[in-house]
Amino acid sequence: MRTIAVGSKIKTLRTEHRMTQEQLAAVLGVTPQAVSRWEVAKAYPDLELLPVIAAYFSVSTDFLLGLMDP
Questions:
Q1: 48 DSSP 8-state letter
Q2: To 5 degrees, how large is the angle CA 49–CA 54–CA 56?
Q3: How many CB atoms are located within 10 Å of the residue 31 CB?
Q4: Residue 45 near residue 53, CB atoms below 8 Å
Q5: Dihedral sign, CA of 26, 32, 45, 36?
Q6: What is the pLDDT along the chain (70 residues), one digit of tens a residue?
Q7: Side-chain half-sphere exposure of 13, counting CA atoms within 13 A
Q8: In Å, how far are 8, 51, 58, 69 from 40, measured between CA atoms?
Q9: Is-contact 70 60, C-beta < 8 A?
Q10: Alpha helices by DSSP H, 1-70
Q11: pTM of this prediction?
C-alpha cells in the first residue's frame, strides 16, 4: 500500500515556484495554516482542491497523489 504524499508534493512544487505558504493559500482560497498542515502531513487538501492545485502547478492529480511522475 502506498503512502499518500500529497503534502510533500505540494511543498516541493510551492518551493520550486518560489512561493510562500501565504501566497499559495491566497491562490487557493484557504488559510496559510491549512497549507502548513498539508505540508507536514497533518491534514490533506479537500478533494475538490486537488484538480485546482494540479492545474495551478501544471501537473496531474495522479502526480499529486504520488501515483505517477509529472
A1: G
A2: 95
A3: 13
A4: yes
A5: positive
A6: 566 789 999 999 999 999 999 999 999 999 999 999 999 999 999 999 999 999 999 999 999 998 876 5
A7: 26
A8: 7, 20, 22, 21
A9: yes
A10: 6-16, 21-28, 32-39, 50-57, 61-64
A11: 0.89
Q: Where are the beta strands (DSSP E) in the chain?
A: none
For 3, counting Cβ atoms within 10 Å of its Cβ (0-12 exposed, 13-18 middle, 19+ buried), the class is exposed
Q: Which three cell numbers stand for residue 12?
A: 516541493
The Cβ of residue 66 has, within 10 Å, a number of other Cβ atoms equal to 14
Structure-block grid coordinates of residue 17: 515556484
The residue with cell 498542515 is 37
- What is the DSSP-derived secondary structure letter of residue 49? G
